[in-house]
Design brief:
38% helix; Rossmann fold; 8-stranded mixed beta sheet; elongated; 14 strands; alpha/beta; 434 Repressor (Amino-terminal Domain)
Length: 367
């Protein structure tokens, strides 16, 4: 026995209103009293009504705007601000305004009446706003894949986060590290999930235990400092710390200084070599790998970051980091959405975004 699809008419009969009132209430349009709107939405949810997204797209007129949904922590992170500026710039090239959505999000039906499409960046399955946005009845592009239950076709622009962390672990190992550790981000975003999984798989492949400490997705320098102090106190043999959250690497440096761990060129392991820039393919433009050697000036520590930015570039010493090119990433996300809206790309298109490894003094070998 198959269950019948719930229609707008079914919702209208159950709520005691007209079909047009139901449509206006669910889309956030028209002059519908708030109490009626709430009752209609409650009835629709109870009956399990799901909008026909394709039909709604055909019926609605263009608004000339697209929406941008960022994680709740985005406003204090350099990475997301650069991404947003890149997305705005690219959308404007197609004549589209960008509407920044509140961190808590908006009901999909209501926002869909004001935008032609949506960008949803680093969507967390635990973010209650995301399912409604993905099922809002307009084209959606996610920055990184959504790992929760899919509600409809959406495009995506993704980075190879496993490869970027692998490059960092390979790099600190080449520079002499034998006991690397990762301050891994909490949460269930594709980025956080990939980093935690890669730490385990890389360690198993190399016969090395990568110590993992979980910190908040947007850990502050103070939180990173406290986690690093605890980490190094519990295991003084750790000789490299890779910090995942954007902007928190200076906290790792402060912890190292407080504990007398000398960062970078004073590290006791590794051999000399030039800095390098490594692309997503993993090839180095210059190598500095070497074996253990040299007398220890002090208990050494290599420090690196999974996200580059002003905090890593301006630190003392400057911190080796993965440059995710956030402004270009924002442009890529907006470009895919523009292509979908213009019919130049299918709604479920997935595109790749490149990164580069920027090596700096925090992982310099001695000498």
């Amino acid at each position: 026995m198959t269950s019948r699809t719930v229609t707008l008419l079914d919702v209208a009969r159950a709520a005691g209103v007209s079909k047009s009132t139901v449509s206006d209430a669910l889309q956030g349009s028209g002059r519908v009293a708030e109490a009626t709107r709430d009752r209609v939405r409650a009835v629709a949810e109870e009956l399990g009504y799901r909008p026909n997204s394709a039909a709604r797209r055909l019926r609605r007129a263009s608004t000339g705007a697209v929406g941008l949904h960022l994680p709740a922590t985005a406003t204090r992170l350099d990475y997301y601000m650069n991404l947003a500026f890149g997305a705005v710039e690219r959308a404007q090239e197609d004549g589209l305004d960008m509407v920044l959505l509140a961190p808590s999000g908006a009901a999909g039906g209501r926002i869909a009446s004001r935008v032609d499409g949506l960008l949803v960046i680093d969507p967390e399955p635990g973010d209650s706003a995301v399912p409604g946005l993905l099922d809002a009845g307009v084209p959606v592009v996610t920055g990184e894949r959504y790992l929760g239950p899919a509600t409809g076709p959406s495009g995506a622009v993704v980075c190879d986060n496993a490869a970027s962390l692998t490059a960092l672990l390979d790099h600190v190992t080449e520079r002499g590290a034998r006991r690397p550790a990762l301050l891994a981000p909490s949460g269930s975003s594709a980025w956080a999930t990939a980093l935690r999984a890669t730490a385990g798989s890389w360690g198993r492949a190399h016969g090395v235990t990568v110590t993992v400490r979980t910190v908040p997705f947007a850990a502050t320098p103070a939180e990173a400092e406290a986690a690093t102090r605890d980490l190094l106190a519990a295991d003084p043999t750790v000789d490299a710390v890779i910090c995942a959250p954007d902007g928190s690497a200076p906290g790792v440096l402060r912890a190292a200084a407080a504990l007398g761990r000398k960062v970078g060129a004073s590290n006791a392991s590794g051999a000399g070599g030039a800095g390098e820039t490594r692309g997503a393919g993993g090839a180095s433009s210059a190598s500095g790998a070497g074996g253990a050697g040299g007398a220890a000036v002090g208990p050494g520590l290599l420090v690196a970051s999974c996200v580059d930015g002003t905090a890593t570039r301006g630190a003392e010493p400057p911190v080796t980091a993965v440059d995710l090119h956030p402004a270009a990433y924002g442009r890529a996300c907006a470009e895919l959405l523009c292509d979908i809206l213009a019919g130049r790309a299918a709604p479920d298109t997935v595109r790749r975004h490149s990164w580069s490894l920027e090596t700096r003094a925090s992982t310099d070998p001695p000498g």
